């Protein structure tokens, strides 16, 4: 993103995320600027309520920034961006909101893993002609699902 004037904010925003009140969360991202010293912000709050801003000084290298907070409202919004009085080009990536007080490395969410497994299972079923395989596992039972998929692929001669 590139902000050329000093009026208004420029950023990436996610609004109205329902989170339990009083729980601790960590907001994180990687960021860098074309000009070292550019000020960016990680901002948490909700429209109609107070916002809390953590300003960070960007470098020209990718650096991970994080901010830990406790939820105060039934929904929470956040912004990664350049502050009102700041200008300059900056890049942001790897944005993450997670429960707890530590910024962890990026990983697939359980929903992404489940979606990929479901697609792979469909491909294996199609190739196997829906032969006697019990696919009635919980979507969260990833290990059992992978074991069954492995067995089905081996039974098909190792290819799909």
UniProtKB/TrEMBL annotation:
<dbReference type="GO" id="GO:0016798">
    <property type="term" value="F:hydrolase activity, acting on glycosyl bonds"/>
</dbReference>
<keyword id="KW-0378">Hydrolase</keyword>
<dbReference type="InterPro" id="IPR008979">
    <property type="entry name" value="Galactose-bd-like_sf"/>
</dbReference>
<dbReference type="InterPro" id="IPR003305">
    <property type="entry name" value="CenC_carb-bd"/>
</dbReference>
<protein>
    <submittedName>
        <fullName>Carbohydrate binding domain</fullName>
    </submittedName>
</protein>
<feature type="domain" description="CBM-cenC">
    <location>
        <begin position="7"/>
        <end position="72"/>
    </location>
</feature>
<dbReference type="Pfam" id="PF02018">
    <property type="entry name" value="CBM_4_9"/>
</dbReference>
